[in-house]
Amino acid sequence: MRKKTLTDVPDGDWEQRVVLVRVDHNVPLEGGEVGDDTRLRGSLPTLEHLSERGARTVLLSHLGRPGGRTDPELSLGPVAGHLSRLLGRGVTFVPEVAGAAVEEAVSRLGEGDVLVLENTRFHPGETADDPQLAEAWAGLGDLYVNDAFGAAHRAHASTHALPLRVREGGGVAVAGHLMERELRFLGETLEDPDRPFVAVLGGAKVSGKIDAIRALLSRVDRLLIGGAMANTFFLSLGLEVGRSLVEEDCIDLARELLEEAGSRILLPVDCITAPEIGEGVEGRAAERDRVREDEVIGDVGPRTRELFGAEIRAARTVVWNGPMGVFERRPFRAGTEALARALAEASDGGCTTIVGGGDSAAAVEEAGVADRMTHVSTGGGASLELLSGAELPAVAALSER
Ligand code: ADP
Ligand code: MG
Fold first, then answer.
1. For 24-59, how does the pLDDT look when each residue is reduced to its tens digit (9 = 90+)?
2. Which residues line ligand 1 (CB under 6 A)?
3. In Å, what is the CA distance from 12 to each residue of 23, 53, 112, 184?
4. Contact (Cβ atoms closer than 8 angstroms) between residue 122 and residue 112
5. Among residues 64, 358, 380, 389, which one is catalytic?
6. Active-site residue 381, yes or no?
7. Which of 21, 168, 275, 291 has its CA at a distance of 20 to 30 angstroms from the CA of residue 181?
8. DSSP codes, 307-323
9. Mean pLDDT of 298-312
């Protein structure tokens, strides 16, 4: 790691110190209660590291998109209660983002205590990367930890201006355990992968993933393409795709990429088609040059499942972003499920398997194989940017090793 991490700070240095920790506690709330608490649990290793060393921890997080105004529906209050149960210690909540009430609450913190501030996006300065808001937070303490990988592609006050301010004042800004793990797997592992290195891209759009395709093409031995993304590539080959989801304005780009990459890009050879995408429809397996005008492509076909599966099982490093089909609907689930299982088997055989993207993570979870992957990323947009080779602003703002 080029950036400092928790373990670069000597244990004794945390004791009694106020530590500002940016976490990703952007969890779903259902009727004032925390729904899926995966993200809260993801931050526990870092929070425990700090509490065990006697730090006085102040948590900053956003929740939803309140647009710079207070929205009681998006308060982090319920999160504090839930977090307290997970941590097995008292967690206090102050219903302010910054200011006198926050300073007062921080002054009452004891060794190992945790304080949750209100949703950072209730303050208009958060998304504006406002130095004044950063200044107010930096006045609370001079140690900063960022564990919010999911927000690392945003230059916001809590992820960017604050760590810069802390460092200017002579303090230290480090990556938390979760952030460190994400950077290791999505960044460093892919820079120097064990080969064969295979990438699998799918999902709805080519346009949102062009940079990732280009960056991956420069490094992989094979790039497997599925999902609706493949449809645009089919069009560039002059194939009929019926009423399938395509991006007309990416056809030329798809053709260029195929020319550039030659046999390193592998497209589906067959697909599952249907009259429409729905739960009750009957899917039909068709070779890719046998799709009818009145059909839509909803998944990769059985021969492609075999083909892609064999590539994955022969690989030493695999990175996967984007489902192979409309996996949310039962008739179009098999391609994504088969891919998830192929990755799990490869993993068992010692291959490094990395899954990024919200829908892809949900798919491996649903297939019951998430815990067999080397790493399942918690960040959608951030993981895609990292795969694209971009430097994330929140990571850039941390102290150098
Ligand atoms: P991720 O969140 O893993 O990055 P994306 O958001 O890019 O993935 O894409 C996921 C979406 O792509 C899913 O909602 C899925 O239904 C859709 N999708 C995949 N294949 C197709 C297809 N053939 N036609 C329409 N939508 C598709
Ligand atoms: Mg998605």
1. 999 999 888 999 898 999 999 999 999 999 999 999
2. 202-204, 227-228, 245, 297-298, 321-323, 325-326, 328, 357-360, 380
3. 23, 7, 13, 26
4. no
5. 358
6. yes
7. 168
8. HHHHHHHT-SEEEEES-
9. 98
